[in-house]
Each structure stands twice: as structure tokens, then as C-alpha cells.
Amino acid sequence: MFMAKLSKTDVEYIAKLARLNLSEPEKDKFARQLSSVLEYVDQLSEVNTENVEPTAQVTGLTNISREDIVERSEIGYAEIELNAPEFESKSFKVPGVFANGDEEI
Predict the structure, then answer these.
(1) Residue 100's closest CA among 11, 18, 9?
(2) Is residue 51 part of a domain?
(3) CB under 8 A, 24+ apart: contacts of 11-16
(4) Which of 1, 27, 61, 63 has the fewest other C-beta atoms within 10 Å?
(5) d(CA 39, CA 2)
(6) More confident residue, 10 or 55
(7) 95 part of a folded domain
(8) pLDDT exceeds cutoff 80 at 17
(9) Which of 18, 7, 42 is nearest to 105 (CA)?
(10) Is position 33 within any domain?
């Protein structure tokens, strides 16, 4: 059995990816809690799955979808733009997801 133990550095890295600002006590707390979760999940490696068929789902249910229909709206871009902090070329402008300033994550 693998003993998963996350360090405070691991938690800081995960928090950075999730864009969370954690206090020092929170980093210690989450290091303990996440390590505990990983140890619990690691127990799955003890389960004998040799004769178990791969399964995506077991209920037999299937997704029911409807066709997407584009409908005209009475609202124009001028009105939509009033609700956006930044709006450019008929699009909402938002901060990048995979960059933190000049630093790539």
C-alpha cells in the first residue's frame, strides 16, 4: 500500500493552480486532509478486479438530448455590453485561465 503524504509545498502548488490564497494554517490543514483522502483512495488498489469487466455505467440509462436551436433575441450587443466589465468584438473579454501575469502555470 502506498502512503500518500502531501507536503506543504505540494499544497501550495495545488492552491496556485486553483488560484487560491491560503494562510499558513490552511496549508497545514489541507496537507493533512488531502493526504488522508489520498490514503483512503489508495485502498482501492487492494480490491481484486481481475474478473471485473470495464464498465462506464451500470444503470442502462442513456442521455436524452434535444437539438440545439438558435433563436433570435431582442437584446442587442449594446445592452449586453453594459453588463460586461470588458467587451471586445462582440465578445466578453476575460482574464486568461492558463497564465498568471507573465508566468505560465
Answers:
(1) 18
(2) no
(3) 16/100, 16/105
(4) 63
(5) 7
(6) 10
(7) no
(8) yes
(9) 18
(10) yes
CA distance 79 to 42: 52
pLDDT at residue 12 above 80? yes
Domain CATH number, residue 37: 1.10.20.60
Residues 17, 105: contact at Cβ < 8 Å?
yes
Query: Could you tell me where the DSSP H helices lie in 1-105?
Result: 8-17, 24-42, 77-81
Give the three cell numbers for residue 57. 455505467
Angle in degrees, CA 19, 43, 27, rounded to 5: 25
Residues of the domain holding 16? 8-46
End-to-end Cα distance, the chain: 31
71/22 Cα distance (integer angstroms): 44
Structural domain includes residue 88: no
Digit-coded pLDDT (tens) for 36-77: 999 988 888 888 989 988 888 888 888 888 899 999 888 888
pLDDT at 18 over 90: yes
**Residues 30, 15: Cα–Cα separation, whole Å:** 10
> Structural domain tally of the chain?
1
